[in-house]
Design goal:
The chain has 11 helices and 19 strands. With 462 residues, the protein is an alpha+beta fold. The protein folds into 2 domains: 323 residues, Rossmann fold, CATH 3.40.50; 98 residues, no CATH class. The strands form 4 sheets. Strands 2-1-6-7-8-9-10-11 form an 8-stranded antiparallel β-sheet, with helices on one face. It has a 6-stranded mixed β-sheet with strand order 12-16-17-5-18-19, with helices on both faces. A hairpin with a 2-residue loop joins strand 14 and strand 15.
């Protein structure tokens, strides 16, 4: 799970950094996304909630950009909002895993739009703009099933575009592409890494260099995606259990007791009727629920989470009962795993992407988690959250600016488009966004047929 790498040593590279933020993301020809769709975290000029929901970031020389701390994507079922969150995951996974692919290995992350013949063999393209230590970067990549067809990394010191590397596509039949490195790329020992000028046609340059070759630019950008992009798209019990285990491991070994107490307060604040959380060491020797302070060296010990509940007798506190957390409700388990996930990002910085935030969570709890990002006193590292939902009541003018509200809509031919509330004329910050959305003023609503249509034998539904 992503949590494991978030808490690892790779984050130490960024401890001195002030801003690590996402600016813009573009995806083209991926699943239901046919044409290029660009999602922006750049704030509009409006002063509404400017001091809480946005942050001004200095970039280059005498320049700055105003960025949003949170954004929400609304849409009907099958509108493509989940696909857009998956696009972030797909993009990150390509960077993390394809640097060591052997020659000729197919790219399993190639998943084009299938409902247009031309798109079935066209390139998938990603482009991401982000900020590391107040310097803007732009990374782009295009690929098909077997080849990376374009890849480039630029950055903008002193507001001037400078290239760090660019992929030079070799002739047909050759096994590898050339890599043109800029003069700014330093620290690479050409004697130790003579092969850095070439990569296989199916290998991602940033993936290979970031994981294998020491250079401050490559390592910084690679670590940004590896450690500062946290993506939640698990809506099944196995995924939540795995994430909970990762959270427990992180609490136990890396984040410390104060973080555990913070997660405990979050669980209690959500009115779960849990009086406290306990981490206990189980001896994994085949005897269930046996807990000891000391165990022989040959016995495996594992941390397990319990919820402490008050036991009453005739309306008076009698004792307490330690319930294994996995036996708590599905919503409580989601709250623990996802809440801890959010608190990690708040504490360390970065961006968290969440698919269907309202899944198994009450809307008030979901609002509470999002509000953490818009609170400058709590969100001191200017972490960002981007989430999808179909819960209209989360669109609240008291919570979001109009440029934070996005919509996913499935067009006539089955392809997804995304757009912001700011794309509509005469949008004011005081309008009731939830009521306007449900009234169809922003689109992105399901077009549900009359109930008689289901039972009508006429194929035309007349």
């Amino acid at each position: 799970m992503a949590f494991l790498c978030v808490c690892g040593s790779e984050r130490s590279y960024f401890l001195q950094y002030i801003y690590i933020m996402l600016v813009e993301f573009t995806v083209e020809n991926y699943r239901s996304i046919k044409d290029a769709q660009t999602f922006s975290m750049v704030a509009e000029a409006t002063k509404y909630k400017r001091d809480t929901n946005t942050v001004q970031v200095s970039i280059g020389k005498d320049d700055h950009v105003q960025l949003l701390k949170s954004a929400v994507i609304f849409g009907a079922n099958a509108s493509g909002k989940s696909t857009f969150i998956k696009a972030f995951r797909n993009f990150k996974t390509i960077i993390m895993t394809t640097g060591r692919l052997p020659e000729g290995k197919p790219n399993i992350f190639y998943d084009p739009f299938l409902f247009e013949v031309e798109n079935q063999e066209m390139d998938t393209r990603y482009e991401c703009v982000f900020i590391i230590e107040n310097i803007k970067y732009r990374y782009s990549i295009s690929f098909n099933l077997y080849n990376i067809t374009a890849e480039e990394l630029n950055y903008y010191p002193k507001n001037v575009k400078k290239n760090l590397f660019k992929r030079i596509i070799s002739k047909k039949g050759e096994l590898a592409d050339d890599v043109r490195l800029a003069k700014d790329v330093k620290g690479i020992d050409l004697k130790l890494f003579p092969e850095h000028f070439k990569v296989f046609k199916n290998q991602v340059i940033l993936s290979k260099f970031g994981s294998e070759i020491p250079d401050k630019f490559f390592n910084a950008v690679y670590s940004y995606f590896e450690a500062y992009w946290m993506i939640w798209s698990e809506n099944n019990s196995q995924g939540i259990e795995e994430l909970s285990r990762a959270v427990i491991t992180g609490i136990d070994h890396q984040l410390g007791d104060d973080f555990f107490k913070q997660v405990e307060k979050l669980v209690k604040a959500a009115d779960t009727k849990i009086d406290g959380l306990l981490l206990k060491e189980e001896v994994d020797n085949g005897v269930k629920r046996r807990y000891l302070k000391h165990t022989p060296n040959n016995e495996q010990r594992t941390k397990h989470l319990f919820g402490n509940h008050i036991v009453y007798k005739r309306d008076k506190v009698f004792s307490n009962y330690e319930l294994p957390f996995i036996e708590e409700s599905a919503g409580t388990n989601v709250l623990f795993a996802l809440g801890a996930y959010v608190l990690v990002v708040i504490r360390l910085g970065g961006v968290v992407f969440i698919d269907e935030l309202d899944n198994s969570l009450h809307p008030k709890v979901a609002r509470f988690l999002v509000s953490l990002f818009n609170n400058p006193t709590i969100n001191k590292k200017n972490a960002q959250i981007i989430f999808s939902t179909h819960e209209a009541h989360l669109i609240d003018k008291d919570m979001f600016r109009s440029d934070q509200i996005w919509f996913a809509n499935k067009k006539e031919k089955g392809d997804t488009e995304i757009y912001s509330a700011q794309d509509f004329n005469d949008i004011r910050e005081d309008i009731p966004f939830d009521k306007w959305y449900l009234a169809g003023k922003f689109g992105a609503l399901p077009d549900i047929k009359d109930i008689e249509y289901i039972f009508n034998d006429d194929e035309d539904g007349k």
